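User: My instructor asked us to take a sequence, write out its structure as tokens, and then describe one feature of it. I'm not sure where to start. Here is the sequence I was given:
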Amino acid sequence: MTTMCLIIKKPLGRHVAADFLENAWQRNSHGWGCFHMEQNQVIWARGLDLDELLQHNARLPLNAEVYLHLRRATYGDINHDMAHPYVVRPGLMLMHNGSIAHLAPHDTTRSDTSELARLLRDMLEGLSDAQASALIRSQGFRALTAPLIEGSMVILMDASGPVRLGREWHTVQAADWDEGMAGIEVSNSHAWGR
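Assistant: Let's start with the prediction itself. The structure tokens for your sequence are:
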């Protein structure tokens, strides 16, 4: 089984349990990040420390859908710049779960996800925010990116909200963890667990 990052989707009105994050951090301790919408703006943060993640998680707004990313480095250095999310362009953020071997950069300090963000930045260059937002939500964009991200999950977030590309969510069941996490969606079922 491949070890990979974890994306957690915190729904409106819910919290992500601190013990769940602590457990997932044991397998994904190479950085954390999150993003959510607040007053039509993407709010984001990232870091490298578990205590900082737990403190940030405790302050997340209850009335927002938040995406949390815990990194397991497959390519690239372990540093603040390689923690997700990535800025594709001002107002458009990216998180990725999986490994894209054919995007592994020649510069070993960079990650496959940083390369994906660069490619998307180049693709969207010259477009207005409205044009870029429409493009990333189009069927053509899904078709174009599907072979590139096959087997992975990508979350893009702009002022119009999230766009998920790639594989489907896994829903945590009470038997997987406990009632407090039941119903919360995660990007995979093997980057966490008891």
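For the description part of your assignment, you could build on this observation: The beta strands are 6-10, 32-38, 41-47, 66-70, 86-89, 92-97, 153-158, 161-166, 170-171, 185-186. Try explaining in your own words what that tells you about the chain.
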